[in-house]
Amino acid sequence: MVDRPDAERLPARVIPLAGFVVLLWLVETFDQLVRDGALDAAGIMPRDLRGLDGIFWAPLLHGGFGHLMANTLPLIVLGVLVALQGPGRWLFVTAFIAVAGGLGTWLFARPAVHIGASIIVFGYITYLISVGFFERRLLGIAVGIAILFVYGGTLLTGIFPVRSGISWEGHLFGALAGFGAAWLVGRSRHAAPT
Description:
Helices cover 71% and strands 0% of the residues. It has 7 helices and no strands. Helix 3 (65-83) runs parallel beside helix 5 and helix 4 packs across helix 7. The two termini are 27 Å apart.
C-alpha cells in the first residue's frame, strides 16, 4: 500500500511523461495535416552534418499515425515505470537515451533517415531491466525481470535487421544507451555519501 504523501506525488511524477506523449501527437498531427509528412526529413542522417541535429528531432518524428501509435503504448507503460522514480530521473534517463542513442545511430547506422520514439522505448526496456542490478535494489531487480519477460522478445527482434523499413540501429543504440543510463544511475547512487 502506498502512503498518502507518495500517492499525492504520483500524478506529479508522470506529468512530464504525459506532456512528452502529448507533444509527440501534436508534432505528428501538424506534420501529417500541415506539412504532409515533410518533417520526417529532419531525422537522423548518419554521418551527414545536415542530419546531426536529427539526434534531437528524431524521437519526436514518426512515419505516420500508425508508427506513432505503435510507439505510444510501450512509451507510456515503460515511461511510467521510469517516471515513478522521480521526474528528475525520468528527464535524465530520457534525455540520455535520446542523445546517446541518437549519436550512436548517427555514427554507425546505414544511410537512411532514422526517426521515431522507439529509440527511447528500447532504451527504457534495457534501463528498466538493468537499473535494479546496478542500484542493488530488490524491487528494481524484480521489475527488471518482469520487463525482460514481457519485452525480451521485442528487444531481441528489434535490435537486429530482420524487417526492412525499421531502424534496428536506432533500437540497438537506444538499448545500449538505456543500459548506459542505468549504469550511471547505479554508479551515482553508490557514489553518494550515506
